[in-house]
Amino acid sequence: MNSEVAGITIKRDEEIDKLNDLLENNQLVLITGERGIGKSGIAKEYWKKYCKNKYSLAIRTEEFNHPNIQNVFNGIGVNSNITDLFNIITLYNDKILFIESLEKILELESNRAFLDFLSLISKHPEWKIVATTRNYAVQQIIMNFISEYCIKYDIIEINKFSKEQIDEFIEKLPSFKALNCNEEILELIKNPFYLSSVYKVINSGYILKKKMIIRTQ
Question: Taking the model in full, what pTM does it have?
């Protein structure tokens, strides 16, 4: 989920810079938060700001549902032998891997490949990892996986947009100004997912009022 709606970006530089600071002292950073809060958007904006000169890979957690780590990398188009791959990319000073929706590791039929991955990464501290996960799964992921391999990690929790951020957004988008008297929706759209959803509803010709939706055309 991006932090951009209707071509307007609600800046989250503080979170992006904090993520960068945490990666300076940790091999893994977990970006956590509720559904739709913008975890993936933060990871994307971090990559755009800080990773243009780094060797980068991105993996969806579902792609770890393989019997071994070699199959995982083959599945994302990396056909080199894992050992050869790691030898080749030693030429890069900075290496980073992004994992999307890590909470899904708890649902996979097999986590063998993910365990192999953690074992491999723990031997290569020069690699950095950014993983997004919903907050309900954080402690279980740490206890079941990360702690087993002594990988140094930290957590950044993404919060809802502030009132000031929402006010700034509404000021730039006249169709949203009618929401100023609707406290329920104002609270709801502090989550980027719902902000985008409400924009689509309004843009389709609905007026949102407290506890009702009225079609205007």
Answer: 0.86
pLDDT digits 0-9 by tens, 154-179: 999 999 999 998 888 888 887 787 77
The predicted-structure confidence for 25-77, as pLDDT tens digits, reads as follows 999 999 999 999 999 999 999 999 999 889 999 999 999 999 888 888 888 88
* Cα 175 to chain centroid, rounded: 29
Strand pairing report for 8-9 and 4-5: antiparallel
Short-list 73, 142, 130, CA closest to 97: 130
CA terminus-to-terminus distance, the chain: 29
39-66 exposure pattern, b = at least 16 Cβ within 10 A, e = fewer? bbbbbbbbbeebbeeebbbebebebbbb
Q: In what order do the strands lie in the sheet with 127-134?
A: 55-60, 95-100, 127-134, 28-33, 153-157
CA–CA distance, 48 with 38 (Å, rounded to integer): 15
| Residue 85 pLDDT | 77
Give the three-class secondary structure for 94.
coil
Confidence of residue 207 (pLDDT cuts 50, 70, 90): low
Taking Cα atoms as reference points, which of 151, 148, 155 lies closest to residue 125? 151
